[in-house]
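To whoever picks this up:

The nightly regression suite flagged DNA-binding NtrC family response regulator as changed. Nothing in the input moved, so I suspect the structure step. Input below, exactly as stored in the fixture:
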Amino acid sequence: MSTESHILVIDDDPDIAKAARLLLERHGMRVSTAADPDSAWVLLAGEPVDVILLDLNFARGRTSGDEGFAMLDRLIAADARAVVIVVTGHSGIAVAVRAMRSGAADFVIKPWHNERLLTTVERGVALRRARLETAAIPPVSGGVLLGDSAAIARARDMIARIAPTTAPILVHGAAGTGKTLLAQLIHQASAQSHGPLVTLDAEAADAASIAGCAAAATGGTLVIDHIDRLPRTLHADLLRSLGAVRTVATTRRDGEGLRTAISEDLLDRIGTIPIALPPLAERGDDVLLLARHFLALFAYRHGKPNRPLGDDAAQGIVTDRWPDNIRGVRQAMERAVLLGNGDIYTAGDILRSPDVTAPQPLAPDLSLARNEGTLIAAALNRHAFNVSRAAADLGLTRAALYRRMARHGL
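Regenerated output under the current build:
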């Protein structure tokens, strides 16, 4: 996570505030604390924050959460794009659900697990940046599935036919193929579009977060991210919690790999309608359309001229395998906008290594799915073992990268 991330902790308990501050600062974030609303507003007036951790009961001896809800309402009214993560006691699931329906982005139960808090805050920072970016991009970048290939045409057709129903949907595809966007589009086209869109990170889930997210998604859509990474010990908890909630689950696995990771009962519940998103290399000229889209988007965002693609650049984009799929194209186009300095974009602008000083860039046929350990080691070396930068390079959160480093003994 970038060191520029600024977190505001609003809690009257100095020990709780200190524990959160030390944890987040240790992971490269800047943290401010406030013991009451007045102090919080003074801080907010002075500089922007990315995420607000709000204790719903910040007045000692009170457990109703009323003062926290009043503060939550004021925060959302002051900034519709604010990302507020509420903090509540172990018995406060119902209160947390109410807060999410009132505009909170997520919740944390006290006493928290450090990994859970860190993952939740990192996800909140990413959400804040996405909200700010959405407000800053031209209308063409709205929620659409870009592409003219047969695969994308099939996906759009499935959205049109299945989204208005309540059928559970399972989206599978490699990293960076657009699974999250597809889930959002399904929600927007559904009869539940007026309700909440809640995301459950299966890899970081516990019984409390499963119950809370499922309850918060009532009347809306629950997106279960990386369903194959949910520990089997929690499968029954998820099945019990879902009830009639409409679900869209995502996974990078399919076939036997998916059946090995997910119990038959759970797969029956979440996998009624499968939708596959193929790798970008199998989508023909979609990559060129996406590249031009991202070049225009980032030129607008960064106040740069929207320059045309040279023939060599266009040819390089089409012939490259793009192992990181849409995420890789997006990152490459932003680098080209920021670092290119000619009248047109050249192949050198577009296909340069993420670290222009690296003497030996990664072979283009490597992918995180097929050679994870090699990629992670290379990214860590490329960024002098700066975990935040390596995680951003790989498209992972810091917490996810730490887990993979442990898995590969790095």
